[in-house]
TrEMBL record:
It comes from Rhodoferax koreensis. Residues 188-310 form the HD domain. This is Phosphohydrolase. The keyword Hydrolase applies. One of its GO terms (molecular function) is phosphoric diester hydrolase activity. CDD domains: HDc.
Length: 446
């Protein structure tokens, strides 16, 4: 039997392990998806309460032990004169009856209300992240404008912005990295905010003291201010640069350092700015420093800056997916980065960082939207589900959906058109932080 062939089964014969599809609108049932593998008696009782006499199931996607070949007919293969319902009932007569206790209808209504509340909470959380990211970009632009003419004001604003983020990240509960649904169209502001957010989260994961974390955040925010003194076409590294053009581009580090000095930034912030392109194997620039001469903050900033440049290059045709960028760094660039820092980064971002497009174990498609470092193989995803409008899709925590493991990462161009339009992966990846899902689960680290 082919994987996409379905069969009818009477709801009285439902059992754990069957992969079923409910031919109902998403508001007419309380489940996150209309198709799923049954894992509990509670799910069976809920399905029986929906008023359906039969449901479709997919033998090829069901647990082998749950499937018996004679219990239902393939869709469309019912004997002439018999509807699938009659056929299913005839088969049911041959099998031992199963208890059909149904959950009260008010419980189903309550589940639907809970789903709506989850969707509202999900949308509110995303809106908060996007609003705060936009505000951080606005503040960065003001800092960049004032860095030359009002350096003291630029310093104070930088410290205030970073201080607020540090207080949030060090507050109650764990923070998770959240993919934003929209990019803001201004790479010169998106990049420093992206790098600041990820650097602060990584610094916390590595246990940096509050003062060092604050210095790291300020350095991450202003590390590229010197690019404003370069011609537009020279502000981003290009493989086609001549030797002289490459040297000219690299001067942005010195320009950024000079701006930081005029802002009267502390020495540890200035050092991190000066070292944000250094590599621990001595292959970086401008001073070819090795790891033993680099600050912990510099090692973090160098890694995060490189990751964001791989995901969000000046030329989008050269962009890597977050999974590709992480894989490239680990497989081919590992000697360039501090091993402790890189290990913590991979644990924090997960094997499939937010923004990664993936194929699931059931051959469906999804986009990773959030990662909790305590469960790097179980990110939170939005799944392509034709039964749910795109704007109403609930985030699925793979920790709670064991049947939906990730099979592989994909390029967006490899997606079927319907999945591409639904998941709508953005050409640029922007991140912010939110409280980790499941942070209040008793007995679990998040």
């Amino acid at each position: 039997m082919q994987d996409n062939q379905s069969m009818w089964i009477d709801v009285a014969q439902l059992r754990r392990g069957l992969f079923v599809q409910l031919d109902l609108g998403w508001m007419d049932h309380p489940f996150p998806k209309g198709s799923f593998r049954i894992v509990s008696e509670e799910q069976i009782n809920t399905i029986r309460s929906l008023g359906l006499s039969q449901v479709r199931y997919f033998p090829a996607q069901s647990d082998a032990a749950a499937v018996t070949p004679h219990e239902a007919f393939q869709v469309g293969d019912a004997p002439a004169g018999l509807s699938p319902a009659v056929t299913s009932e005839a088969v049911a007569d041959e099998l031992a009856p199963v208890a059909t206790a149904a959950a009260p209808l008010d419980e189903v209504a309550q589940a639907r209300a809970q789903r709506r509340e989850k969707l509202n909470a999900q949308q509110r959380s995303l809106q908060v992240c996007e609003r705060r990211f936009t505000e951080a970009m606005r503040q960065f632009r003001r800092i960049a404008e004032q860095a030359g003419s009002k350096p003291a004001a630029a310093r104070e604003q930088s410290q205030a912005l970073v201080g607020g983020c540090v207080n949030d990240i060090l507050g109650d509960g764990e923070s998770a990295i959240r993919l934003l649904s929209e990019t803001m169209g201004d790479r010169s502001a998106e990049h420093p905010v992206n790098v600041m957010v990820i650097s602060l989260l990584l610094g916390k994961a590595l246990g940096l003291p509050t003062g060092e974390l604050h210095a790291l955040g300020v350095a991450a925010l202003v590390h590229d201010l010197g690019k404003s003194q370069l011609p537009e076409r020279m502000r981003y590294a290009d493989p086609g640069f001549s030797d002289s053009e490459l040297q000219f581009y690299r001067e942005h580090v010195q320009h950024s350092l000079q701006i930081g000095q005029r802002m009267d930034l502390p020495p540890d912030v200035l050092s991190a700015i000066a070292q944000h392109h250094e590599m621990v194997d001595g292959s970086g620039f401008p001073a070819q420093l090795r790891g033993d001469r680099m600050l912990a903050a510099s090692k973090i900033l160098a890694l995060v800056n490189h990751y964001d440049n791989l995901c969000n290059p000046a030329r989008l045709v050269n962009a890597l997916t977050p999974h590709e960028a992480l894989s490239l760094i680990f497989a081919q660039m590992k000697p360039r980065f501090d091993s402790l820092t890189l290990g913590a980064f991979i644990r924090m971002m997960g094997v499939y960082p937010p923004g990664s497009v993936v194929q699931l174990a059931n051959d469906g498609f999804a986009i990773v939207v959030s990662v909790n470092s305590a469960r790097p193989l179980k990110p939170r995803v939005i799944v392509h589900d034709v039964s749910v409008p795109r704007e109403e899709a609930l985030i699925v925590d793979l920790e709670d959906a064991p049947a939906l493991g990730i099979r592989r990462s994909m390029k967006p161009s490899q997606l079927p058109r319907a999945a591409l339009d639904y998941l709508s992966p953005r050409p640029r990846v922007c991140y912010y932080y939110e409280r980790a899902a499941g942070a209040d689960r008793s007995g679990q680290h998040t």
